Amino acid sequence: MSAPCLQVDDLHVKYPIGASAFGKPKWLHAVNGVSLRIDPGETLGLVGESGSGKSTTGLAILRLVKPFSGSVRLGDTDVTRQSNAGLRGLRRRMQIVFQDPYSSLNPSMTVEQLLDEPLQIHAQMSKADRRAAIGGILEAVGLHAGYAARYPHEFSGGQRQRIAIARAMILYPELVILDEPVSALDVSTQSQILNLLKAIQDKSGTAFLLVAHDLAVVRLMSPRVAVMYLGEIVEEGPSSRVYDTPGHPYTAALISAIPFPDPVRQRSAERLILRGDLPSLMNPPSGCRFRTRCPFAMDVCATEAPPRVPIDGGGVAACHLHAHGPRLAGRSVQTLLAARTAEARSVAMARTP
Amino acid sequence: MDHGIASAGSGGKLLEIRDLVVQYPSTNGWLTVVDHVSISVGRNDIVCIVGESGSGKSVTVQAALGLVQPKGGRVRSGSVKFDGQELVGMSNRQLNRIRGDAVGFIFQEPMSSLNPAYTVGDQIAEVVRRHRGVSRQDAWKRAVAVMDRVHIASAASRANDYPHQFSGGMRQRVMIAMAIACDPRLLIADEPTTALDVTIQARILEVLEELQAESGMSVLFITHDLGVVAEIARSVVVMYGAQVVEAAPVDELFRNPRHPYTSGLLEAMPQVALDRGHAPVAIPGVVAQAHAWPKGCRFHPRCGYCQPEICAVAPVPLVPDDHGYVRCSRASELRSVLGKAATERTIPVMT
Questions:
Q1: What pLDDT score does B11 carry?
Q2: Residue B10 — very low, low, confident or very high, per pLDDT cuts 50/70/90?
Q3: CA nearest A265 in B: which residue?
Q4: How sure is the predictor about B178, in pLDDT bands with cuts at 50, 70 and 90?
Q5: In chain B, which residues have their Cβ closer than 8 Å to the Cβ of A271?
Q6: B54 Ramachandran zone, left/alpha/beta (phi>0; psi -120 to 50)
Q7: Does A29 touch chain B (CB under 8 A)?
Q8: B170 with B164: CB under 8 angstroms?
Q9: Cα B85 to Cα A279: distance, rounded to the nearest angstrom
Q10: Does the beta carbon of A159 lie under 8 angstroms from any beta carbon of chain B?
């Protein structure tokens, strides 16, 4: 096995929020023991709803928020133990593209200035070389070199996201965190950006951590995916397996919630709609954190943390259903859904005379 | 069959927007942001307007109910009939009697539509008191009843809570409760699920469909997501560049899109690409803007089927065809090509 580009072990991020009546500090546990690995040139998808801790995980990897405990290693460098000076050197090796290209670009800088800044800070290059590098990266992201003198407000959302990608890529980092890179864009331009990111990765060999709420986007872009719920990874594995035969009921609910653009198929689709809201991170449910919204919750789910079970076809899921109740033992939770639908049908049949 | 377009034969519809032209001021004079748009919503119907940012989908509906004038816009021409009554030219006072009563609204951002200083029960009850003139007690009872109808658990006590005490999905349900508090005949939902997670979106759509089926109210639903359209719509109006480019019953629109833009939007969706096992087919270029509409067909600079000598010359009219309306000079030639793409996209469903 080759050395990973990124190795995250048992990462915890906690925010202190005031103190209880007795002066004991209260903590919001945003990321609770996340472990990840990304190989060089690979894309790992990280999906979940808002409040799942997926973005915080991305920020903690870059140390834009400080981890409480755990380790983050980029190549052979321990990111969590770097001084500020050491972090500055790491910035050229890992970068981020944010969700909103309207607020992530400085409106008073031209495109050329925006792209020149990282080169000035990190690369000892002559002015002519920097200019050539800027022309090259603009071409790579599909923007005309003549746009270099323009300001961000002169561009559409999709074009701004191209500028943000150019800025993240101009130092050829080892890792780029893509935090919801297309969700603020128009539908017709989203796939332009997805295709662009793939093309750039093919040429540069950069590893991506793609943080997104849309499982379909993640499935398209990354061969492996990890699903987060309330600060924990509940399932991970090859994207095709996770998408086609999910081992965790939360993953199944996420997939079935994406409406498919075909009304006939949509009407006949098996739906798993979650009731209730995301519980508070201040006071997460005991045992399995998903149990309050899980349609298959059992007694054991409230008392014991779920074990990580290998799933048929690769990867793992943290769910009691594999060892208790229906004892799925690695089979997809969709077998339960199908059984439930069949039961509902037979009940309906029995009612009609 | 209903196709969502107001035409000579669609009299008696609940909402009939005909040839609406809306303009906003700019440094270069008035910009036309809604260009001769006609939309009709029947009784007990769900019509979706789908389009990207800048397509004019929201402004059309806001203008129809007199909501663009306060923002500096104007209705240049056209007619909007609600239940036979002309709304264009009506005073704000008269419109206020319709808005919130016979017509309910839900917007994208529930937090900015709710007053943080009042309990949600008070806010819903105020709508009821204003339009129905009932006692405070009865209005409060009604508020609790509608909160219960949108499945907010223990509605009687939650009515005493403030907006910040609700999650995003719950707030949107509070908004729905407020919108249906006076039993509207028409519910206008402007991107009501765009700011929500997919799991919450699924639940909101389920609640909306249930309420529609129970009450028989009509719904005009504005969205950019064709997946949501497939879930909820009965007929669909597609807008691009301030104009309607296609309108059809929902199954027809997805199975036989007649406009290259509609077809392109479908091809660009990640789920479709996944299904077919290749990269999503992007629509090149950028969305057309009001200060520089392309000459001829407004989609032609981005269209893979464009023939400049046909498409880039004169404005293209919206013409009726056997399933609805389409605005494309090459529509009849492209029928089989776009239809074939659609057949490959959709898989037969076993029944």
A1: 59
A2: low
A3: B349
A4: very high
A5: 202
A6: left
A7: no
A8: no
A9: 47
A10: yes
Over the range B143-171, which residues count as b (16 or more CB within 10 Å of their CB) and which as e? bbebbbbbebeebeebbeebbeebbbbbb
User: Is B152 within 8 Å of B173 (Cβ atoms)?
Assistant: yes
Encoded tokens for B204: 């909101």
* Nearest residue in A to B198, CA atom: A257
- How far is C-alpha A85 from the chain's CA centre? 28
- Whether B234 has a pLDDT exceeding 90, the answer reads yes
Share of chain A above pLDDT 70, in %: 97
Answer whether A187 touches B (CB < 8 Å). Answer: yes
Are the Cβ atoms of B230 and A263 closer than 8 angstroms?
A: yes
Cβ of A217 under 8 Å from any chain B Cβ?
A: yes
Q: Which of A159, A194, A265 has its CB closest to that of B286?
A: A159
Domain boundaries, chain A: 40-61+83-229, 245-351
Going from N- to C-terminal start, the domains of chain B cover 257-345
* pLDDT one-digit tens code per residue, B33-76: 999 999 999 999 999 999 988 899 999 999 999 999 888 999 99
Q: Tell me which residue in B272, B281, B287 faces A261 most closely, judged by beta carbons.
A: B272
Q: How confident is the model at residue B351 (pLDDT cuts 50, 70, 90)?
A: very low
- Angle A31-A165-A173 from CA coordinates, rounded to 5°: 70
* A186, A191, A213: residue with CB nearest B198: A213
CB contact under 8 A, B271 and A265: no
Q: Are strands A77-78 and A94-97 parallel, antiparallel or unpaired?
A: unpaired
Are residues B256 and B338 in contact, defined by beta-carbon separation less than 8 angstroms? yes
Say if CB A176 and CB A144 are below 8 A apart.
no
Q: What is the mean pLDDT of chain B?
A: 91
- The reply to whether residue A188 touches residue B269, judged by beta carbons under 8 angstroms, is no
CA distances from B211 to A213, B294, B351 (A): 28, 42, 27
What are the tokens at B321? Answer: 């065809």
A40-61+83-229 under CATH 3.10.105.10, yes or no: no
Query: CB B227 to CB A258 under 8 A?
Result: yes
Which regions of chain A are under pLDDT 50? none
Nearest-Cα residue of chain B relative to residue A214: B198
* Integer Cα distance of B261 and B294 in angstroms: 15
The alpha-carbon gap from A208 to the nearest alpha carbon of chain B, in Å, equals: 18
Residues of B in contact with A256 (CB under 8 A): 202
CB B54 within 8 A of CB B263: no
| Most B-contacting residue of A264, A293, A294 (CB-CB within 10 A), to test interface | A264
| pLDDT the model gives residue A268 | 79
pLDDT in tens, A20-60: 677 777 888 899 999 999 999 999 999 998 889 999 999 99
